[in-house]
Amino acid sequence: MKLSICTISFRHYLHSIDQLADFAKAQGFQGIELWGVHAKNLADDLHYGADWLRSFGLETSMLSDYLPLDAPISEMMAETERLSALAERWGTNKIRTFVGKKGSSDTSKKEREELTFRLELLCDYLESKGQYLLVETHPNTLTDNLPSTMQLLEETNHPRLRVNFDVLHVWESGINPIIAMEQLRPYILHFHFKNIASRTQLDVFAPHNVYAASGSREGMVPLFEGVIDYGEFLAEVDSTMEINASLEWFGSNVKSVLTKDIHDVKKALQLVQI
């Protein structure tokens, strides 16, 4: 298993990328998932990139952004080319995005066809660069449930379209994440791990709240203290596939929580191997 921190977890903290790399190395992480805006803000400082990160014994697991699928195609492609170049600089072949801005049940057939067409364009370009486009399983997008996600993958039918499997959001959709993982397994290139104290508190992860510095963090809990059984999930996934995952934490005390979470994940995996 390869585990990463997410630089988005530190979006409201005054830490440099150097400090984050030091922290990730010290706690035994193998990589960093770089938020797109952070990669863009570091673009002019050529000191930073894959070689620099490798000096810490780390790799860039994924570049996570929000490609403008609703923008004019020229603008969408220009942004994709920019992110692709940044991904190459940081040594990753994975670019994460969301698909659409509303749920699958609210998306018309015509809108779905347009999104599929645009994903094909993006995947064609990224294929020429040896990269993958990962769509994240997420509420209020076209991948908000398993059937719609499978349909999108089948309709796009592109070898460069893959999935970032967010365990909590898959569970939020009402399906057992293990069952969803088994069906999506050929497409999964990355996982997001996070947890919640109660289903009634899921709104805490709504974008308007989770990205706000003053937003509520009520219900966000360490990985093994929430309603999702990560011990069970890790036991299943570790026996069936290679795991590349990011510990995605949006709450306070980020360093202490991530330190606890990686320790608990490694402990759970040791139990699986006994």
Automatic annotation (TrEMBL):
Signal recorded as keyword: no
Record Gene3D superfamilies: Divalent-metal-dependent TIM barrel enzymes
Record key words, sorted: Isomerase
Gene Ontology MF, one: isomerase activity
Ranges of residues in domain Xylose isomerase-like TIM barrel: 22-260
Transmembrane parts of this sequence: none
Pfam family, one: AP_endonuc_2
InterPro entries found in the cross-reference section: IolE/XylAMocC-like, Xyl_isomerase-like_sf, Xyl_isomerase-like_TIM-brl
Protein name as it appears in the record: Sugar phosphate isomerase/epimerase
